[in-house]
Structures are given as C-alpha cells and as structure tokens.
Amino acid sequence: MDDAQISGDLSRVLFTSDQIAGRIAEVAAQIDSDYEGEEILLVGVLNGAVMVMADLSRALKSHCRMDWMAISSYGSGTQSSGVVRILKDLTTDISGLHVLVVEDIIDTGLTLSYLIGNLMSRNPASLKIMTAFRKPEAAKNTVDVAYVGFDIPNEFVVGYGLDYDGHYRNLTSVGTLAPHVYS
Ligand SMILES: O=P(O)(O)OC[C@H]1O[C@H](OP(=O)(O)OP(=O)(O)O)[C@H](O)[C@@H]1O
Ligand code: HPA
C-alpha cells in the first residue's frame, strides 16, 4: 500500500521501508554469523510476522526452513487481552532442531512468554527469538530476545504486518496510529 494514501491515519511515521530493510539486513548478517553451519527452522507467528518473515528469510544466507503458528491475544482492540490462544499449530516436529521464532512485535511480552514455554516443552536443540519491533516500556514479562530490529515507544503502531483490527498490515512503513482512528 502506498503510505501516502493513509498518511492521515498516522500521527507519526517511525520507520520508512528503507530504514526497515536496512535494519533487517543487519540482523540477518548477525544471525548468519551466530548460526554458522547450522540449519535454522524459522517459526513465524501469524499474522503479523508475514512481512518480517518474508524479508528476513530472503536476507539470510543460512539454510533454513519455515513453519508457522497462529496465536492471538489482541482480538480487535489495542490492548492485550492476556489470554493467549493457539489458532494454528506447527506442522514440524521441532525436537532437536534449531528454532528461531520470528515475531513482528513484542509489546507486553505475554504472547511470547506463553510461546517460549510451549515450544521449550517440545525439546528443540535451541530456541531463540527475533522480533522486528519491541516496546521495552510495555513489558510485563521479561523475555530473552536475541535479535531486535527496533525498540519503539509505548504507543500503538501499525504497518509492516502490524494491524489495527485487520487494517494497515500492508503499509510499507511503520507509524503510530492517530487517536481519531480508534477513539
Ligand atoms: O507482547 P504482546 O503484548 O503479547 O503482543 C505481541 C503479539 O501481538 C500481536 O499479535 P496479535 O494477537 O495482534 O495477532 P496478529 O499477529 O494476527 O495481528 C503480535 O503479532 C504479537 O504476536
Ligand atoms: O502496537 C501494536 N500494533 C499492532 N499490533 C500489536 N500487537 C501488540 N502491539 C501492537
């Protein structure tokens, strides 16, 4: 989606598509260096992670496979419900595999702490987390995140996979949603 078409719905652009692409390339290089010689199973968390998964996986030089989980804790609002539901599970048996969870955003951390507990019980060889965006001030759970694209302020953001009630995921930049859209 052309960002100009919905610029009235954003109060502020935080990152342009070029800035996001540049940072994803840096993170991919770090991952390649850390996993040298290992195959990685990238686990994307639907729906929001589709953009970062597509970009990160193509920026990696490492051998990797992909699988997906769908988990929901936000419903249609801007606050985490705190209730995490698995809507779609992995198709891969991750026992003995190097798993890298790919997230679009870590906000309260509730989704991820649930996910880590769930995946660790399946005995992967290793489990690490990559997220495109993280809100340090919103954290309700401390989760160990190996790779972070950008730390951002504690405001509701949309674009690059992040939605408000299903909208704005295909915005190429990331920005804060103007209050008039959701109030
Ligand atoms: O750290 P938290 O406060 O738990 O929030 C992070 C989660 O919220 C979003 O998912 P959402 O439930 O909105 O589903 P979606 O990816 O389909 O938009 C996002 O993709 C993360 O999975
Ligand atoms: O700021 C956000 N925007 C969109 N989806 C989200 N899920 C958690 N936090 C956010």
Automatic annotation (TrEMBL):
Compartments it resides in: Cytoplasm
Enzyme class, spelled out: transferase
Catalysis performed (reactions): GMP + diphosphate = guanine + 5-phospho-alpha-D-ribose 1-diphosphate; IMP + diphosphate = hypoxanthine + 5-phospho-alpha-D-ribose 1-diphosphate
EC number: 2.4.2.8
Alphabetically ordered keywords of this record: Cytoplasm, Glycosyltransferase, Magnesium, Metal-binding, Nucleotide-binding, Purine salvage, Transferase
InterPro entries noted in UniProt: HGPRT, Hxn_phspho_trans, PRTase-like, PRTase_dom
Record pathway: Purine metabolism; GMP biosynthesis via salvage pathway; GMP from guanine: step 1/1; Purine metabolism; IMP biosynthesis via salvage pathway; IMP from hypoxanthine: step 1/1
A Pfam entry, by short name: Pribosyltran
Record-annotated Phosphoribosyltransferase domain positions: 19-164
Record-level Gene Ontology MF annotations: glycosyltransferase activity
Cofactor(s) needed for function: Mg(2+)
Protein family (similarity comment): Belongs to the purine/pyrimidine phosphoribosyltransferase family.
Protein name as annotated: Hypoxanthine phosphoribosyltransferase
Species name: Microlunatus aurantiacus
